[in-house]
Structures are given as structure tokens and as C-alpha cells.
Amino acid sequence: MTIQQASTSNADFGVYFRNQPGNQQGVYTFLVHPDGTWSAYVYNNTTSARTEIASGSLGDSHASITLDIVINGANFTFYSNGHKIGSVNNGIYSVGTVGLAVDAGGTITVSNFSLYQVA
Length: 119
Description:
Layout: E1 2-5, E2 13-19, E3 27-32, E4 37-43, E5 50-57, E6 65-72, E7 75-80, E8 83-89, E9 97-102, E10 108-111
Antiparallel strand pairs: 1-6, 1-10, 2-3, 2-9, 3-4, 4-5, 6-7, 7-8
């Protein structure tokens, strides 16, 4: 998918995946921060406390980013503009829903959001 934060926006944004159903609070997120860094988090299913499981630098948080997240079992690999920027192995949640995330007050534009099955 291609994702871009508005020039007037200054918020975390990205993707959540393996979101747990109902009132459960467990989820993984990949978030781009206003300072141009990124973090992947896992959230506790009961308390919603988050733990950073991977992080790195992207550059300008207002630039257009082609973001890909490849999930194969407990292995997550993150790509920005076709370049691998990080990976992590975490098997706490094995299934769940996926969607977009943006903090309050943030504005993003997203195109070409797609899900594919890994062969």
C-alpha cells in the first residue's frame, strides 16, 4: 500500500494486524512516528500495554511511503519503498483482523491497500 501523512498532520500512523476479536485488546501494530522513525508493537490482550518489538528509521514522515508487511507464521518482515527495513519473530497472536491506524488529529492518504496469501 502507499501511505502518506498530510503536511499539516503530526501523528503516529500505520497498520494494525492480528487484531483480536470482541473486547480483547491484543494486536500488533506497525507505526510511523512524526520524527521519521518506525516501531512495531505487540499489545497485551488484557491490559492493552504495548511492548516495542522492532524499530528503525524511515526519514521524512510526510513523504509518500510504499509499505509492505509480509507475515509468515510468527515472522513479520517490514518493507518501505521495496527495501527491507526490519523483521521480527513473535507468535503471541496467530490470527486476527487487519486495518489502518492513525492517532487522533492525524490525517493520512492511503491507496492500494491489499491482502495477499503468501505462497
